[in-house]
Amino acid sequence: MAYFSHAYQKIMIGNSLKTTVGSLSDLTAGQLGVVGMDHQTIKITDVTTASYATHPMVYLAQGSFHTVDEVGMHSGYLRPVKSKGINPKYVSKVWVSDAKDAQNNIWHVCSDNCNLECDTTYRLRIDVKGSRVLGALQRNLYFNVDAYTGCCTEDPVDPITVLLQWANGINENPLGKPFVQASVVGLNSLGDFVVSVDTGTITATVSDNEDIVPEVGNVLQVDDDYYVIATVEEQTDDDDVVTGWEITVKEYDWLTGETGSSAATLDDMTEEDLAMYLVPDMDNYEPLTDTTTISKSHSCLVIESAYVDTKFGDCSYSKNDRVDIEPVIIKVSILDETGDPCVVNCFKPTEIQEAHQGAGYGETLLQEYILSKSYEQEFWEDDPRYRETKDQTFNTDVDRTAKYKVLNILHSVPRKSNPSGTFDNDQYLIRILFKSTFDTSDLITWLNAYLTSANSGVQVETTGY
């Protein structure tokens, strides 16, 4: 008897769709067609062809990737790859597994009105977890990085100096640097800036704060939004006295340094005080020494998980290569001298972005494709010379660098006879790999109409992996 919880899997590649009527011999390499019982491809762009009365059973065919028909004593390699016959009344589920980009773990440690003490060591603990860490070190990883505020002076301590020491400690840790990278971002306050808005541009008057002269690259803070100055045009009166500047701005993410591609529109802004900041050069940073300026500055340590596996080229590729797509997880905490993680100070560790595993990688699907082909008696050869003589095309059938969405069709095929005398069904799962950018709308529309015509009660769903 069949294992009812198990489905025999078959993987096919859909590099293109056959949308016109034709013979199977017309299918090109990687071209997918829906085929009727007359062995002709169906015009799937015409929904009227999606009729159970006209096509009580269909099957899928994919053009062969082989370039020769005979290898050794065996022939038929140029024939299309075909599925079992699909009766829509025996289809139990159809779904599309969309590709998904991976997302790494990001933490921020930001200063909030910091009043740091001199001659003090501030300690940051980094925990790094995940299968990649366990594979490399045989254990999870944690380490501490210290920042010393220096000997006591009358000047207050600029928190950016502490964040820079932490970043250097993380990036130089011999065990941690393959998994975690850190950087410091900041905005140093220049003061308040009064502006008036005219059709999306900003005109600022010089009389409100003569110490501030706006420059390209300075940052304006409007509530919780930030804008970087893109252009500055000086405005003068008839006596050549500077009366203000006309400024255009772009949206700005100060935590990443990313600037918007087009000018920002600020028509809804009324005349008000805005904070203006200078983006400091962190490679040659001069610490702030004024308490008021320090209290108004924004600064954060950005900690990101990052890891790159060793990958081999097609010639040296092995189906047994380890493919690990689990993201690295990090946790950040502030400690005191005794190692207490509950210490309260002005630094606030916050997880900004959770880690998420990607899906639809060609690297993992290639291994599944190799397994599927082995059931068709096309066995993978580790020796590239054997692969050449046997015209094996595994590595070019599936693009290891691409992401794929997968169309899954789960259906049953009844056995017309069974030696045990018990009526039985076998389940089959057809998985069709399409690159994530491929337009499958014609095929999905046709399948939905075909299933509806058979009153199957099944429609194409979209799910995760």
Supply the key terms.
five-stranded mixed beta sheet; about 35% strand; 2 domains; elongated; about 475 residues; single chain; mainly beta
- State the major sheet: 6 strands, antiparallel, barrel
- Helix amount, in percent? 10-25%
Please give the count of helices: 7
User: What is Rg?
Assistant: 32 Å
pLDDT under 50 segments (min length 5)? none
Helix and strand composition category: mainly beta
Number of strands: 26
How many structural domains in the coordinates?
2
Percent range for β-strand residues: 35-45%
Average pLDDT number: 86
The strand order across the widest sheet is 14-15-18-17-16-20
Based on Cα principal axes, name the global outline: elongated
Q: Specify the oligomeric state.
A: single chain
The rounded distance between the terminal residues' Cα atoms is 29 Å
Protein described:
- This protein has 465 residues and is mainly β.
- It has helices spanning 131-137, 159-172, 291-296, 362-374, 384-389, 394-397, 441-453, and strands at residues 8-13, 16-17, 22-23, 31-35, 40-41, 59-62, 70-71, 74-75, 81-82, 91-97, 106-111, 121-129, 141-148, 180-198, 201-205, 219-222, 225-236, 242-253, 258-263, 272-278, 298-305, 329-335, 347-353, 404-414, 425-435, 460-463.
- The strands form six sheets. The protein has a six-stranded antiparallel beta barrel. A five-stranded mixed sheet has the order 1-25-24-10-26. Strands 2-4-6-9 form a four-stranded mixed sheet, with no helix packed on it.
- The longest helix is centred in the middle third of the chain and has 14 residues, at 159-172.
